Amino acid sequence: MSGSVVLPAEFSDALKHTCKAIRSAGRLRVVSHYDADGIAAAAIISGALVREGLQFHLTMAKGFDESLVTRLTKEGNAAVVFLDMGSGQIESLEKLEGTVMALDHHKPVRKSKTVLQVNPHFHDINGMTEACASTLSLLLAITLDPSNWNLAPIALAGMVGDRQHMGGMRGLNRQILDEASDKKFVETQNSLNLTGSTVLKSISESVDPYFVGLSGRPDNVSTFLESMGVNADTPLGSLDEFYRRKLTSMLSLRLMGQGCRPETVEELVTEVIWIPSMDLNAADLADLLNACGRQDHESLGVAMSLGDRDALEEARTLSSEYNRKLMEKLMSIESDGVEQGDHIQYFNTEDASLAGAECGIAMQYILDQSKPTLALSTVGKKVKVSGRGTRYLVSKGLELAAAMKRVAEGVKGNGGGHAVASGATISVGKKDEFIKAMDDIVGKQLG
Ligand SMILES: [Mn+2]
């Protein structure tokens, strides 16, 4: 392995075999997932293939389904590589002709005799917290050619996109971050987890974290900064130590005052990963990739990651439009509150694509911490439900995904997800019944 990344021998072997298969394929079909990690993984593999002078055709997919399999079968590819998916669909992958590879960090069903799987789970490495699809793609890229270390910043954005940086980078991700800083592709610093060209903008435009009374309200932020003697027009990074500390403690106090859980307050100061070549940090890049994915502009995300400045500007426009809509809804939740059940709280929202983010941020920063939150949006004759709890509520017995699944199926809909975040789809007429039943079952879980 190039650089100082240490891997179990079998893991290195799997990467080397995959490299060999890619080189001998001639032309490669690449399929990746449309979220930040998937787009970052696709950008890394694309960059590496271009450097190798190999031809490829990339498609970003919302998920793995039969229509994708049918399409790939019809194409009759000599070689296909799946990124951020595939290990859970091994049976379907085995039916495809040609060389089939999967770089995936989701729990694999089993090993395969015909499909080349690169998956951390096979080597006792946690794929939820220590390696994502962009981690694997970078490892493959640097196995192909160590010059591909310059793609490491994209991988770091993918890790942030999959929330693997929470509580600090670990394992393989940590190794990549350390090596990328040694090689000067990134710079790390513990600082306020905010972005924006001035202190004023960093706070007033901040959606996550959401500061009650300050987010979306530049006049209030001006007064707040004035009271501390902080110049509103200074870039956050140029504040001197004294004011930086003062600002950090005041913002922490505000988050505590608005009822945030201690783990949320702790996230205010994080290891910020600066990418000098792109003039932004890894979290910003992850946000931009998410914005591209959500609005069906994945190729923009790939181009931007590989250094296309126009693509970067376009992605910024998409992202700020998204943040503006999100901010508007959060401010209305802040001022008007939400509907209260005995054990849950809920609100209606128009844009189903924003519901999950609105629900998560409102739960974390604005609403009652003792009740999980549901966001409901009507799409045609269906109601899409996003649900969010907190890690604390999970520790108290909340199993939101199980509740959503059971209650949704009880009204002939469907639901699922994981402990903290989950979703359901039900028919419009069953909305009240669904809310009532959710309230009861969550009450039993937390009781
Ligand atoms: Mn992923």
Q: What oligomerization state is this entry in?
A: single chain
Number of strands: 14
Global mean pLDDT: 94
Q: How large is the radius of gyration?
A: 23 Å
Tally the helices: 18
CATH architecture of the largest domain: Alpha-Beta Complex
Low-confidence stretches: none
Adjacency order of strands in the biggest sheet: 9-10-11-12-14-13
Write the CATH fold name of the largest domain: inorganic pyrophosphatase (n-terminal core)
Characterize the overall form: globular
Q: Structural class, from helix and strand content?
A: alpha/beta
Q: Which ions, cofactors or small ligands are bound in this entry?
A: manganese (II) ion
Distance between the termini: 52 Å
CATH classification, class level of the largest domain: Alpha Beta
Largest sheet: 6 strands, mixed
Give your account of this protein's structure.
- The protein has 447 residues and is an alpha/beta fold.
- The protein has 3 domains: 9-162, inorganic pyrophosphatase (n-terminal core), CATH 3.90.1640.30; 190-329, no CATH class; 339-446, Diaminopimelate Epimerase, Chain A, domain 1, CATH 3.10.310.40.
- The protein has 18 helices and 14 strands.
- The chain has helices spanning 9-25, 36-52, 66-75, 90-95, 133-144, 152-161, 171-182, 199-204, 218-228, 241-257, 262-266, 282-294, 298-305, 309-336, 352-366, 391-395, 400-410, 431-446, and strands at 27-33, 55-61, 79-83, 99-103, 115-118, 187-192, 269-275, 280-281, 339-340, 345-348, 373-379, 382-388, 414-417, 421-427.
- It has a 6-stranded mixed β-sheet with strand order 9-10-11-12-14-13, sandwiched between helices.
- Strand 3, helix 4 and strand 4 (99-103) form a beta-alpha-beta unit.
- Helix 2 (36-52) crosses helix 12 (282-294).
- The protein is globular.
- The relative contact order is 0.09.
- The structure holds manganese (II) ion (MN).
- Manganese (II) ion (MN) binds next to loops.
